[in-house]
Design brief:
heterodimer; A: 408 residues; alpha/beta; Fumarate Reductase Iron-sulfur Protein, Chain B, domain 2; Rossmann fold; 3 domains; four-stranded parallel β-sheet; 20 helices; B: 228 residues; 10 helices; 77% helix; globular
Chain lengths: 408, 228
């Protein structure tokens, strides 16, 4: 079977130039977590770029313009699709790219092109739009269970407020200590906040965006933005890096204009609350903590300092770093909506994060991302090395609310 | 030699058409891309532009990930540019003073070019034993090595008639035919240069643009979610 047609429709001019800019030097392979666990050069960044460039050449290059486009073998297209969907979209290849390709944005757009051609996505990802349409979240879980199992009875949610809190699907369903910590921190800081009802707090669109399935995005995003606007929100807070990434980078584009509110990550709020004295840490924590920078928080939106400000402000804490940290951090394996499609890769990558933390003699591994939290938790199952893990807001809330919560 | 001169001159035109045509086709593709980049907030500042220019000239990003390879690649690319500038004396009449002024650096670069090509080859393929090997890059390296070695041999051992070389090249660029100088090294040198022109990588123009954009992106990263 053959496939024809232009391959450039999903890409921006910058991204088309990026494809031509790859020198095929191969330096990025050293930083690719997928290459660490599955060293097939065929799924490496330069090879994906080379193959996609061949597709463009065959359909729109000089020869194609002079003598007509060439057919591309369906098998080749399928192999490419698998390669581009195996990636965690962590963006480490771009961060270390010798010419500076913004790969964290490029790969999702190449996926979008393969989805447009009916070849992607892979496995269960294909069901995601329907699942989100039916339940509002990509996990096919009922909306009524979104907040009830973890929302503390003592925390009040205002009908309207300047600040809104978005829990996010992964946090609400798979990293509940994190979202619980978020609202406890908001309460402790005395910040009145509002939330959407569980059936209205639908998916932010990130899993659809990153898997190249953009059809529903505009609708989802407009629904959410309008709902927060109706509540008079000025600042939308969230702890999930993927959510804040799409909210700050892409929501304005799909919404068609500047958002009527600011987007902030919870660590930004907490760091500021600690600085201003609204939030006070009441307990010591004599532990060596190691902090993992989530790819979509560090490379994605540039948040690397705030989590460290929070951790350093805890008395007794000794903060240590991974070999690769900040914007150079290494993926935990959860990214790119590939976790459930390629679980062996995800677990192997997650385990190397655990191993490094254990090797560095950390007492606890700290996250600020529900997907990292869930992934490393899963990676710990049947693994010979174990470490205590905590979300940064879970930890912080345990140190400011002595009675209700425990830090471990 | 006159017939061969005609063939090589026509080959030169063909290679130029291919080279320019390919680039024009690429630029047309770039222009057709969506004007709204999904990566918002990217506007070029003077500071980022100047830093980006420094990145292009210094290969800073390669230095950051592989300093051993960087030194070889940087000297290789600078030598390549100097050798091209030195060769412009064959294409221009009269030769401008700036081209005369790069003759000595160009000669030194001519020696460095094959040495650094060898260095890159040994470092990449034998020392680091890179997992990802681009056959296309190996071919480029091979062709450039051959061109530079044949050029060096003409400079040091075989000494073809430079006056007839200049006559031949000036004729070609002014759309006339002239006999090719009777040196097999020169003929092979030209054939390989034409082959290089045809397969020259797209990154020579695209990579500097991306490097500039990358600097701007780095500068803007702190504004994505830290805006006032
Ligand atoms: S984005 Fe991450 S996983 Fe994907 S190719 Fe780049 S480094 Fe590898
Ligand atoms: S480092 Fe950049 S230029 Fe080099 S192979 Fe990787 S993506 Fe291409």
């Amino acid at each position: 079977m053959k496939s024809r047609g232009c391959f450039t429709g999903s890409l921006s001019s910058q991204q088309l130039i990026e494809l031509d800019a790859c020198t095929q030097c191969g330096e990025c392979l050293t930083f690719c977590p997928i290459q660490d666990v599955n060293s097939k050069p065929s799924i490496s960044p330069p090879e994906k770029i080379r193959v996609f460039r061949e597709f463009i050449k065959a359909t729109e290059g000089l020869k194609a313009r002079l003598f007509g486009p060439r057919d591309i073998d369906r098998k080749l297209l399928e192999e490419f699709t698998k390669a581009v969907f195996e990636c965690t979209t962590c963006g480490a290849c771009g961060q270390h790219c010798t010419v500076g390709i913004f790969s964290q944005r490029l790969w999702p757009q190449l996926r979008k092109e393969m989805v447009r051609r009916g070849i992607g996505p892979i496995g269960g990802q294909a069901k995601m739009p329907e699942v989100i349409r039916n339940t509002g979240n990509p996990y096919n879980l009922p909306a009524k269970d979104r907040f009830d199992p973890w929302f503390p009875a003592a925390v009040e949610v205002a009908e309207t407020a300047d600040t809104a809190y978005y829990a996010g699907c992964t946090g609400a369903y798979s990293a509940q200590p994190m979202v619980k910590g978020d609202v406890l921190v908001l309460k402790a800081a005395g910040e009145p906040f509002t939330m959407l009802p569980p059936e209205d707090e639908v998916c932010c669109g990130f899993p659809l965006f990153v898997s190249g399935q953009h059809d529903m995005l505009e609708d989802l995003i407009k629904r959410l933005v309008e709902a927060y606007r109706a509540k008079g929100v000025k600042m939308l807070l969230c702890s999930c890096p993927c959510c804040v990434n799409i909210m700050s980078r892409d929501w304005p584009i799909f919404y068609g204009q500047k958002l009527p509110f600011k987007i902030r990550h919870m660590t930004q709020f907490a760091a500021e609350a600690l600085r201003s004295g609204k939030l006070k840490i009441r307990r010591e924590l004599p532990e060596r903590l190691i902090y993992h920078d989530p790819c979509y928080l560090s490379r994605g939106v540039g948040i690397t300092e705030e989590p460290r400000i929070i951790l350093r402000s805890i008395p007794g804490v000794q903060l240590i770093e991974f070999d690769r940290y900040g914007v150079n951090s290494r993926c935990c394996g959860a990214g790119g909506a590939a976790r459930k499609v390629y679980p062996e890769n995800a677990n192997a990558i997650g385990r190397s994060t655990i191993d490094e933390a254990v090797k560095k003699k950390a007492d606890r591994l700290i996250f600020s991302c529900p997907a990292c939290y869930a992934q490393v938790n899963e990676g710990m199952l049947n693994h010979d090395r174990q470490i205590r893990i905590a979300d940064i807001m879970e930890l912080l809330s345990s140190l400011i609310e002595q009675d209700e919560n425990s830090a471990s | 030699m006159f017939t061969l001169g005609i063939f090589l001159t026509l080959g030169f035109y063909l290679a130029m058409i291919f080279f320019l045509g390919d680039y024009i086709a690429n630029v047309l593709i770039w222009i057709r891309g969506k004007s709204v980049d999904m990566a918002a907030h990217d506007k070029m500042s003077v500071r980022a532009f100047l830093q980006g220019v420094c990145d292009v000239l210094s290969f800073r990003r390669l230095l950051a990930v592989n300093d051993v390879l960087w030194i070889g690649e940087w000297i290789f690319h600078v030598s390549f540019v100097l050798v091209i500038l030195r060769h412009l004396r064959y294409f221009l009449d009269p030769v401008p003073p700036c081209i005369w002024s790069v003759q000595t650096p160009g000669i030194i670069a001519g020696y460095l070019l094959p040495l650094t090509a060898m260095y890159i080859f040994v470092e990449k393929y034998l020392v680091e034993k890179k997992k990802y090997v681009s056959h296309y890059n190996s071919l480029l390296l091979g062709i450039i090595s051959f061109i530079s070695v044949s050029g060096l041999l003409m400079k040091t051992v075989y000494h073809p008639d430079v006056v007839s070389i200049k006559t031949f090249i000036i004729s070609a660029v002014t759309f006339r035919f002239a006999p090719v100088p009777g040196s097999s090294f020169f003929i092979l040198h030209v054939i390989f240069v034409l082959a290089l022109l045809v397969i020259l990588p797209t990154h020579i123009f695209a990579a500097p643009l991306v490097l500039l954009g990358a600097r701007q992106r780095e500068e803007n990263l702190n504004r994505v979610i830290h805006e006032k």
